[in-house]
Amino acid sequence: MDFDELCQLVEKHCKALLQHKGEIYFGSQSALSNPNGIALVDLNPGGTGLDTLSQDLVHWEKSQQRVDSVAYLDMCWHEPFFSERRTCERCCSSLEDPELGHVHLQPHQKRVLEISRSVGFDLRSSLAFNAIWLQTKDAEALVDLLNKLHLDSMQSVFCTYFFRFFREFFDKCNTRLVICLGNGEEESSFALFRDALAVPSKEVRWVGNNFKDGKYFVHEGSNKVVYFGVPHPSRHAFSDVGLQKLKQLWLEVKSSSLQH
Q1: Residue 230, SS3?
Q2: In angstroms, how far is the first alpha carbon of the chain from the final one?
Q3: Distance (Å, rounded) from C-alpha 193 to C-alpha 108?
Q4: Parallel, antiparallel or unpaired: strands 38-42 and 127-130
Q5: Model pLDDT for residues 237-255, shown as the tens digit of each residue
Q6: DSSP 3-state of 181
Q7: Residue 4 carries which DSSP code?
């Protein structure tokens, strides 16, 4: 998929939202054109300072750094630099260090990198999104935004707009593993996909007896896709048991996709 195709899908499914502030895609251009079969999906962008979704597409197209750049490795997440889309001095030094090759990582970024290394995939070849692209600084602001959209919940806005995009996008990119960053029963990317796909609770498999071990379900559509919910990396580390299971599932779906 190229950038123009991404824009066409955004216009097709989410045109009514383009004047709202937020961020659409924060993976690399190379991941779009040659995806590895993995998508990482968080909930929604927090903080302040983002442009409208329409402007985000314009900035993304013009940015030369986006060819191999991914937010988990190359974007400074330290405030106020993050909200201003600038890079602090410490992160600049880390980017220039040939032994690191990434910014000075925040805990969230560090845990995502640890997951990719443990499971065995390249973050720069992985798709990266929020389930809901609209930026809200807190829960109260999100409620206000939903009211303006005449929707009553995060699930409603996800199913009305974003799920339709993801369903087509994942199919076009041959996505086989969706790693949901956050696995709460409500208001997590895992819960949004679970409910949108009408997955019965008996089909959600817990890896262990703790949310830090993760949980997952398998959806059989045009492709077999595993949706795996990990504890949110901004607050919790993923357990070794969960990492081992995620690695096993990735090897299985990757092998299955190579056989077709």
Answers
A1: strand
A2: 20
A3: 21
A4: parallel
A5: 999 999 999 999 999 998 8
A6: strand
A7: H
